[in-house]
Amino acid sequence: FVSRSAARLSQLKQHFYPSSPAILHRRSISFTPAANRSIATMAYDKELEVALLAVQRATLLTKSVFSSHSKGTLTKSDASPVTIGDFGAQALIISSIKHAFPEDEVVGEEDADDLRKDASLRELVWGLVQSAKLEDSAAEDKIGGPIPSTDAMLDALDQGNSAGGRKGRIWALDPIDGTKGFLRGGQYAVCLALMVDGVPTVGVLGCPNLPIDDKAPLDASIGADADSGEGKGVLFSAVKGQGATSRPLGKGALQPSNPISMKSISNISEATFCESVESGHSNHGDQAAIASKLGITKPSVRMDSQAKYASIARGAGDLYLRLPFAKKYEEKIWDHAAGVVIVQEAGGEVTDAWGKPLDFGIGRTLKENNGVVGAPKALLPQVLEVVKEVLSAKE
Ligand SMILES: Nc1ncnc2c1ncn2[C@@H]1O[C@H](COP(=O)(O)OS(=O)(=O)O)[C@@H](OP(=O)(O)O)[C@H]1O
Ligand SMILES: [Mg+2]
Ligand SMILES: [Mg+2]
Ligand SMILES: [Mg+2]
């Protein structure tokens, strides 16, 4: 039977392409439809679309919380704030992921414990979740439409409980990164990344308070009182091997995207570096010492959240410095995964303060790393040399 089929195939080829062997070879590709399919569809295109729409819908929810009277703020056991915006955004995004990819796991920052205990808080979040809807029904359908009930909302929130790991597909989700920035009207980001075998592979950041214009200069006012008015609101994204993009944050179907890349600076002394607003989250003193050793004279740009990664990826800033205070603080994977793949795909690299690659495959935290440094690929060795000098001098 096999040799008969082979003979029949050869007859067919002869019939359709009797003359040139070159043409025969080229056209024979059409006998392998699987190969053609992989040319037509890019890897992870469904994951990217679902992540973009899910982050867009959740970002709209957070904006609605910001403009409402009460943000339902609670203080968590580590003394950090969480709001009804964080809970609502996490529930919506996990329900979108589980609709499209039911087998995938999620490492999410929040859980439903507080909402299960407090009926009025639960009702507030449920109201938000119900009214967060994309204005395009096809887009809304792709992320599963509305969450059907409060129980489904609580279950979705609790499905962010993956332990993480090095095998398979795991999403890292920070429903509001920079909650303090969110509360004070500064920068914050809705952050989602798909990790495949422990490697951030698809990343999306929703930054409602960053300027749409990739060329807009970064100034000190970016971190404070960045009202979400006209000309603001961006979705950044990247897929490993496919580059990074930005697009305006819309309310329905996805807007067209633009490619982004890091700025090429020839001399490190011209760099602008971005750091946290909160002085408890990174060591402003060490960062100033590093900048000065690099000959940097421009003041740092302080802003909350992964908006810093987005800003260096689009060339508005150049360096991300997050020097640790204490070796014992373990950075959370959801605070970095999306930003890291976006920076890498824009021509940058991110390591820890000692130059070690960030290891996203060992659980919910980057426990084998200490501090974070991001820079254009060509400049990273020079930056790391100075970072190590400053850190070693303290040991
Ligand atoms: N001690 C310490 N060291 C380092 N990082 C910490 C620390 N405490 C908290 N966090 C995490 O910081 C996240 C906020 O992001 P940034 O630090 O980049 O922004 S900023 O400090 O608010 O300016 C913040 O994320 P969200 O909780 O999502 O806002 C925290 O996960
Ligand atoms: Mg938090
Ligand atoms: Mg965070
Ligand atoms: Mg958060």
Automatic annotation (TrEMBL):
TM regions (residue ranges): none
Keyword Cell division among record annotations: no
Pfam family, one: Inositol_P
EC number annotated for this UniProt entry: 3.1.3.7
Annotated residues for binding of Mg(2+): E109, D174, I176, D177, D335
GO biological-process terms attached to the record: phosphatidylinositol phosphate biosynthetic process; sulfate assimilation; tRNA decay
Cofactor requirements of the protein: Mg(2+)
Catalytic activity: 3'-phosphoadenylyl sulfate + H2O = adenosine 5'-phosphosulfate + phosphate; adenosine 2',5'-bisphosphate + H2O = AMP + phosphate; adenosine 3',5'-bisphosphate + H2O = AMP + phosphate
UniProt keyword annotations, A-Z: Hydrolase, Magnesium, Metal-binding, Signal
Keyword Magnesium appears in the UniProt entry: yes
Molecular-function GO terms, alphabetical: 3'(2'),5'-bisphosphate nucleotidase activity; metal ion binding
Homology family: Belongs to the inositol monophosphatase superfamily.
Protein name, as recorded: 3'(2'),5'-bisphosphate nucleotidase
